[in-house]
TrEMBL record:
Protein name, per record: Uncharacterized protein
Matches recorded under InterPro entries: AH/BAR_dom_sf (IPR027267), BAR_dom (IPR004148), SH3-like_dom_sf (IPR036028), SH3_domain (IPR001452)
CC per GO annotation: cytoplasm; membrane
BAR domain boundaries: 24-258
Keyword set, alphabetical order: Coiled coil, SH3 domain
Domain SH3: 272-333
CDD domains: BAR_Endophilin_B (cd07594), SH3_Endophilin_B (cd11802)
UniProt key word Ribonucleoprotein: no
A Pfam family it matches: SH3_2
Highest taxon of the lineage: Eukaryota
Coiled-coil zones: 145-182
Length: 337
């Protein structure tokens, strides 16, 4: 690799000169060109916008992705422009384990069927959580990041260039003060005039960009409204899902109570008449005497099975077989006799 020695020396000299200027300004031994109060207020608002935008993005990311390791992984995937990996949430894992536990402990038992219902609900909540994370990111995080990566970066770049122009102007003014001959003064005055023109031009460009922070804040208000709307939809959907779970658990308790009276008592004959029932969740038949079930379908419950209190005899069209009673929810008002 070839190095440009002259450029390196020049850059080093510039850095040294800048360091001397900053030191003299701090000590009060060198004059500093001041910007007007309006410009300073715009600059201060820009600095506050930058610091709070960065913090808010981090905060929302923490809410949407609570696991710090996952946040680091997502950050790295974004940097290398790779698609983020799909992952299960804690609610998903809880739901999966509850469903597996319900199947292992027996879907025909009270505990097993309750685990199945609650586990399926947790999986629904996990899906809602992922949908909310996607919606919130699109509504608020992505626009804020885009603003920081485009508009804000441009402003910071122009402010840095303006500071460089100011230092050039102050250096030229300093040389003019130190010039002793008429020719050197004329040359220094030309340098000051050119530096002043460059400074004024850059100052105006930077001012226009800084004034764009106001409209950006207005856009951020809209993004915040979208974020709040996504959050409201999420919590409403979670509430509706949990309310439905409460109804199903309540119906399950009534069904179990009815089963204790009717199905589990050998002194009472079977159902007095056919009853309609809705299938709560999928069930795969264990042998040819059973029916496979699909969640949501409606079947006819024909009778109880004396020697198998956890099962009922059911029909679906021309198919007939026994079914675990805990997989069913009666949808008529008829009671067993």
């Amino acid at each position: 690799m070839e190095f440009n020695v002259k450029k390196l020396v020049g850059d080093a000299g510039t850095l040294f000169t800048r360091a001397v200027q900053f030191t003299e300004e701090k000590l009060g031994t060198s004059e500093k060109t001041e910007l007007d109060a309006h410009f300073e207020n715009l600059s201060q608002r820009c600095d506050l916008t930058k610091s709070w935008s960065e913090k808010l993005v981090r905060d929302v990311d923490s809410v949407l992705t609570p696991n710090p390791g996952n946040r680091v992984e997502d950050f790295l995937m974004d940097k290398i422009e790779r698609r983020r990996l799909a992952r299960l949430s804690n609610l998903d894992y809880l739901g999966v384990d509850m469903v597996e536990a319900g199947n292992d402990l027996g879907p025909g038992t009270l505990y097993g069927s309750t685990l199945l219902k609650v586990g399926l609900c947790q999986q629904k909540l996990g899906a809602l959580e992922r949908d909310f994370a996607t919606s919130a990111t699109q509504a608020f995080v992505d626009p804020l990041k885009k603003f920081m990566e485009s508009d804000l970066k441009s402003i910071l770049r122009e402010r840095k260039l303006l500071e460089s122009k100011r230092l050039d102007l102050d250096a030229a003014k300093n040389r003019l003060r130190k010039s002793k001959t008429q020719s050197s003064q004329q040359m220094a005055e030309q340098e000051v005039n050119l530096a002043q023109i460059e400074f004024d031009r850059q100052s105006e460009v930077t001012r226009l960009l800084l004034e764009g922070i106001g409209p950006a804040h207005t856009s951020h208000c809209k993004h915040l409204q979208d974020f709040a709307a996504a959050q409201a939809r999420y919590f409403l959907a979670c509430s509706a899902t949990l309310q439905q779970l409460q109804k199903e658990l309540g119906a399950l308790s009534l069904q179990v109570s009815s089963s204790d009276i009717t199905f589990n008592n050998p002194s009472i004959p079977g159902l007095s008449e056919r009853r309609k029932a809705r299938v709560i969740c999928d069930y795969d038949s264990q042998d040819i005497t059973e029916l496979s079930l699909i969640a949501g379908e409606v079947i006819d419950v024909v009778s109880t099975i004396p020697n198998e209190p956890d099962y009922v005899q059911a029909e679906r069209g021309h198919q007939a077989g026994k079914i675990p009673s805990s997989y069913l929810e009666f949808i008529d008002q008829t009671h067993s006799s």
